[in-house]
Amino acid sequence: MTSSLVRTGWQALPAAFAKLDPRHLWRSPVILVVWVGSALTTFLSVLEPTVFSVSVTIWLWATVLFANLAEAVAEGRGKAQAETLRRTRTETTARRLLADGSEEDVRGTELLLGDLVVVEAGQVIPGDGDVVEGVATVDESAITGESAPVVRESGGDRCAVTGGTTVLSDRIVVRVTSRPGETFIDRMIALVEGASRQKTPNEVALSILLTTLTIIFVLAVSAVQPMAVYSGGRLSLVVLVALLVCLIPTTIGALLSAIGIAGMDRLVQRNVLAMSGRAVEAAGDVSTLLLDKTGTITFGNRRASAFVAVGGTDRAELAAMAHLSSLADETPEGRSVVEFAREEEGVADGGDVVTLGRSGATFVPFSATTRMSGVDLADGSRVRKGAADAVLGWTRAEGGEVPGDLEVHVAGISASGGTPLVVAAADPGASPTVLGVIHLKDVVKPGMRERFDQLRAMGIRTVMITGDNPLTAKAIADEAGVDDYLAEATPEDKMALIRQEQEGGRLVAMTGDGTNDAPALAQADVGVAMNTGTSAAKEAGNMVDLDSDPTKLIDIVAIGKQLLITRGALTTFSIANDVAKYFAIVPAMFVGIFPGLGAVDVMRLSSPESAMLSAVIFNALVIVALIPLALRGVRYRPLSASRLLRRNLLVYGLGGIVAPFVGIKAIDLLVSLLPGL
Amino acid sequence: MGTALQTATAVLLVAAILAALHVPLGSWIAHTFTDEADWRVERLLYRVVGVDPRAEQRWTGYAGSVLAFSAVGILGLFGLILVQGLLPWSFGRSMDWHTVLNTAVSFVTNTNWQSYAGEAGTGHTVQLLGLTVQNVVSAAVGLAVAIALVRGLAREGAGRIGNFWVDLVRGTVRVILPLAAVAAILLLLGGVIQNLARPHVVETLGGARQVIQGGPVASQEAVKLLGTNGGGFFNANSAHPFENPGPWTNLLQVVLVLAIPFSLPHAYGRMVGDRRQGVVAVDVMGTLLAASMALAVWAETAAASSPLGSMEGKEQRFGIVWSSLFGAATTGTSTGAVNAMHDSLSPLGGGVVLLNMMLGEVSPGGVGTGLYSYLVLVVIAVFLAGLMVGRTPELLGKTIGRAEVTSAALVTLTMPALVLLGTGLAVSVPVSVGARLNDGPHGLSELLYAVTSAANNNGSAFAGLSADQPFLNLLLAACMLLGRLVPIVLVLRLAGSLAAQGRRPVTAGTMPTATPLFTVLVLGTVLIVAGLTFFPSLVLGPLAEALS
């Protein structure tokens, strides 16, 4: 980490020098003041070169340079990523489909919104769009870093393709949905390079405060000279500039933009693209997280978790029949029944679909109307498994009996949030008997409860969104430990929930991938679209997760908070530093006029010149020392606000007061060796 | 009794009285400004002035009304003093035009800087109709602005922050006048004079002729203190036996000065529905005041040049402790009253009262001005520290964003800018340098003190400085006017942007603003902001004098 940072810093040096151009500095008024001060002392040192004035001048320029370096290093990391991305954006030739069905070759950059293009195996998709015809496997590693190909097909929620990715098989027709030069990759490049970076609301507010502080210190230093003249000792301008530069908040002024760029960069490293810095900041402010149950909180598939035999049936027989009935069931639920029967209930490998098929068995596939599946064996025995009322209906229609204790178990499983599947079997020629119930249940991912507890400690409410009925939803919600849930949720319900939370003053974050999620994604303060989602979803959200991992929302919140904490901590540190600098400089400045002021000189620095120079050097070096922290961010712990405040005030407030006393004293010991000072 | 024990007893006595007083008075103030009904006399006033008491104002309208009212006040008082020769009970007293302007600005801005000598510049009519009236209404204006800011925090999604005219009338009729009446009677009982007598010439035992001044002192004295004004009827201010006859009236005066400023936090807590916010404010203000009182006593005894402590410029009947306490209480409340000559304080003692003003008048500050200056510093503290908990900073569920930080930062900038530029100018111009009584650092303190007192609308004088000259009169008038009105407009802007916001719910992720830690944070912010701004000036003035 450190050595790579040093290398990046070395590589960023030319950029840092280029940024000495004052036109670049107007965005950062604090550093601009340092620049003007440096120019002034340079002029004065040329007129009257002394070791002191030349040393101060050199270190003042170093201060500006270090500030630029911080920004350049942060940008440099993004540039490397942008370079990789840019390579994928090589000039492509697109096969534009004309109205008469013929094709023409045009350059990829000439494609217009709404054009149809044909892409075949081995070709690069020329721009962002939706598949309108065909199915293909696509290699998206260029943007996601994930080497496994993904399937893209027309219609539905997997129709979006990204320019710069490669079709591996088949042929698709894509309708272009981005303007030339505004493709996803273009935007990504601009974002990671920091070219399109705009100051975020908090950054603007902080800049205003820093500018005000700078003005106060300019006034304070300007008032020093007339008072010094009155007191009988005119101060040299070099001294005044040194005092000013030490007092204005140069540390945070130098690191502010690096912190912002690095914050975006941390998201990119986790494969999340934020469309604006504002969204990253909003993530830190979020107080309600809407999490889709499926895929985020649970694994997404209901799995068999128990067999409950009824009416005196042996459980081993139930397991065997459940196994048999599910052999041909290719749904995840069906496979989980087979797995559970074999692994947990010790059902012997009772043949497979092929053997059974050869023996003359007919499989009854699951259909939405029958809502059950099963198998009719060659000997005439039949097995059925499915929704309780469907299987009971079948049993009764065939003249079978339903054991009295079935009802209790079915209701019990439903009440616990599980899904009951009833198994019934009939011997050859006989009426069917209900054997028992399979308990299907949604399995919560491990570690979720701990994460929700952390979120609660951070003051964030989690709401689980699910299409399940309220009963099932409640059971999962209790098991996962979320604060609230929205059952049988429609996109409209989701939207209404977001509005309701926002009316209560809460900021809401959510993830989504489908087109019907788009309005809610747009309404949410932080809307993270899955990269596998539709173009509409990606357009509506303000972030895109290239890994399509909805759990990442929690990381995004942490990154947002970390960004704000880093800014606040370094501002506090910067201002707290001033206390020590005053004690170093002010007695040194006036001790010539009033020798008695030596009593205030608690730091006992070797000489007035050495004291002032040491403060200037400390001021410059502290910027370099804090660049790694600005880039990495202050470590974020999921604690309550009051504990975070206590901790950070102690480290950066109190630490900010103490550190320069030690630092300036140490530098003074070295500087005092300088000949001629 | 040792000085330390005596000081502790005195501070605790004052604290006990205020502790008993601030809850009922604060509740009464909160009720006054949230009451739906008008008093009959108020309705009459609204009808006379032509104000619809139910029509609320946006911050711009509110600010416009404050500015208009102040402008009318300045012009009216300016005219009244100019023509006082034509009025009864003027005894031929008069002032130069620049003194008149300075005085008009001074009393309208609740500063009460007096570059004239009380008994020589104004007759009884100006004292009663001009100065006493402004003492009442200028305090009511400060109260109104503070209440408007509190409404900004209390309201949600509101475009309006109240009606200035209603707030002004209610503050006057329900808070200041009744309290002032009670205070005047207590002062009368304590021996303060109240008459319309002409100057009375007597022959002293030693055969010399002495002019004994009379006047309606008790009525003006009450509101001078209660409204944190400070303009004395007599030049000697509260050191004069007719204004402040003895120890008990001195205690009463200290309590009167602190009463409303220390009650406003409770009113604030009530109005925003979270009394702990008010407790934090009282804690911050109380800590600062108690510390400055202790420091002042220490400076006048241990750090003074004489082994018995510094009695120069102090009244025997008050002694060192009560003189120091009075000085700390008045400089901490933007009350210009003095019962000892601050020019004669020990160098460090002068530094303490100077620093008390430089804190921006939050220990506990003037009527209304103390609370709003405190809240502005809270906004700054919340913004700095709030980022450190990883959220957009918020105070009582209100986001401290760009607009709020801009207003608060500019308020924080105004006073230092005026003090630093004003002092820089004053020490460079021969006419003001020539007005000093002393050379060297003490002379610098005289000028620094004058400008600081004016820009903070304190009005307390270091004495020593011959301020009644065109340059200083105009410079200080400008400081007083800008130091008062610029923050008021910005504070109202802040109130407007806060009121317009909705309220975010409090969660575990919200930075708590009612804990001991937050109290320490606000104290730190107050001290660091003032310290960083004024350290060099304090070093060259009081500190250099003390150490040389």
UniProtKB/TrEMBL annotation, chain A:
ATP binds at D329, E333, F366, S367, A368, T369, T370, R371, M372, S373, K385. Belongs to the cation transport ATPase (P-type) (TC 3.A.3) family. Type IA subfamily. This is Potassium-transporting ATPase ATP-binding subunit. One of its GO terms (cellular component) is plasma membrane. The active site is at D292 (4-aspartylphosphate intermediate). It is a multi-pass membrane protein. Its EC number is 7.2.2.6. InterPro entries: ATPase_P-typ_cyto_dom_N, ATPase_P-typ_P_site, ATPase_P-typ_TM_dom_sf, ATPase_P-typ_transduc_dom_A_sf, ATPase_P-type_domA, HAD-like_sf, HAD_sf, P-type_ATPase_bsu_IA. The chain crosses the membrane at residues 25-44, 50-70, 204-225, 237-261, 582-600, 612-631, 651-674. NCBIfam families: ATPase_P-type, kdpB. The keyword Chaperone does not apply. Part of the high-affinity ATP-driven potassium transport (or Kdp) system, which catalyzes the hydrolysis of ATP coupled with the electrogenic transport of potassium into the cytoplasm. This subunit is responsible for energy coupling to the transport system and for the release of the potassium ions to the cytoplasm. It is found in: Cell membrane. Mg(2+) binds at D513, D517. It catalyses: K(+)(out) + ATP + H2O = K(+)(in) + ADP + phosphate + H(+). One of its GO terms (molecular function) is ATP binding.
UniProtKB/TrEMBL annotation, chain B:
GO terms for cellular component: plasma membrane. One of its GO terms (molecular function) is P-type potassium transmembrane transporter activity. It is found in: Cell membrane. InterPro entries: KdpA (IPR004623). Pfam families: KdpA. The keyword Iron-sulfur does not apply. It is a multi-pass membrane protein. Keywords: Cell membrane, Ion transport, Membrane, Potassium, Potassium transport, Transmembrane, Transmembrane helix, Transport. The chain crosses the membrane at residues 62-87, 136-154, 175-197, 251-268, 280-299, 371-389, 410-431, 474-496, 517-539. Signal peptide: none annotated. Its main location: membrane. It comes from the Bacteria. Belongs to the KdpA family. Part of the high-affinity ATP-driven potassium transport (or Kdp) system, which catalyzes the hydrolysis of ATP coupled with the electrogenic transport of potassium into the cytoplasm. This subunit binds the extracellular potassium ions and delivers the ions to the membrane domain of KdpB through an intramembrane tunnel. The system is composed of three essential subunits: KdpA, KdpB and KdpC. This is Potassium-transporting ATPase potassium-binding subunit. It comes from Knoellia locipacati. The lineage of its organism: Bacteria, Bacillati, Actinomycetota, Actinomycetes, Micrococcales. The gene is kdpA.
